[in-house]
Amino acid sequence: MTHFARIVGTGSYLPERVVTNAELEKTVDTSDAWIRERTGIRQRHIASEGEFTLDLAERASLQAIDAAGIAHSDIDLIIVATTTADQVFPSTACLLQSRLGVHGCPAFDIQAVCTGFVYALSVADHFVRSGTARTALVVGAETFSRIIDWTDRNTCVLFGDGAGAVILRRDNAPGILSTHLHADGDYASLLQVPKGVSNNLSSVQAGTAYVEMAGSDVFRMAVKTLGRIVDETLEANQLAKTDIDWLVPHQANHRIIAATAKKLGMPMEKVVQTVAEHGNTSAASIPLALDVAVRDGRIKSGDNILMEGFGGGFTWGSALVNW
Ligand code: UT7
What we know:
The protein is of the alpha/beta class.
């Protein structure tokens, strides 16, 4: 018997505090016009002091569980994609498991930065397809604002905080049609936080472990690589570009998103864009955008949805889903 994984519920959460471009104009040498023109971003949500990745993940998960109409005890796998875990350990997934009152099922974090959600979805899909799990909670959650140098205009205007979640259920029909994951660590230095637990912990404690990015190099690679993964995904499923109903991309920059849409020959009305309101929320950006388009009724039963992401590592990946 072949099993498939279907997304049966989505949820998301954004911190209350909104930081506009105008606000950033007061603290760094930037302008609303530059940020809008080069990135498409108008504002981002930033977690308040005392609000953590786990809190965001919990809010998004509760919404997804509610939308799926399942009991917490139905969940038999929890995967959280995050770059900004609250603790070195336990994993955010284990802490979330406790918050949700779930016991005993496997729970672990995945770290693939902006591609994290696609990685997590792919792993959960394999668990469900193999019959190892029946009901999986997959979350992308970030407080990226905590690893941003708010005096660096090259990075601070780009990122925001948030969380998105989906519930996957085993089904006889797809569901997730295919997932495609890639990485190339040779590009690590172009997009990184160069400090970590075993490398200069004191600088992490002092709050100097920040995102560093060679923006235009990353931009060029993202456009090229995402174009390739679109082809790979369509080919694997023997589908034509016209078979895709919605593109739900990672939300880093509206120009990168537009380039991928162009590659698909897709009008921008068929692209779910939240970058203007959310900024780049790393692993949270795809499930956040997905939840917006599900809740506003754009995504309908039977639609083919292409999700794709690119980020630090470099990592990149895609998921093709029949809704
Ligand atoms: O999510 C993970 C993957 N990340 C991405 O995909 C991000 C990819 N990169 C990008 O989205 C874009 O490269 C950026 C938005 C980061 C930058 O846009 P760009 O068109 O590539 O600009 P640039 O880096 O080539 O910089 C152009 C100019 C520079 O000034 P000079 O050297 O030409 O005088 C920058 O110093 O823009 C300047 N600049 C800014 N000016 C005003 C850089 N940041 C700012 C800023 N405000 N915030």
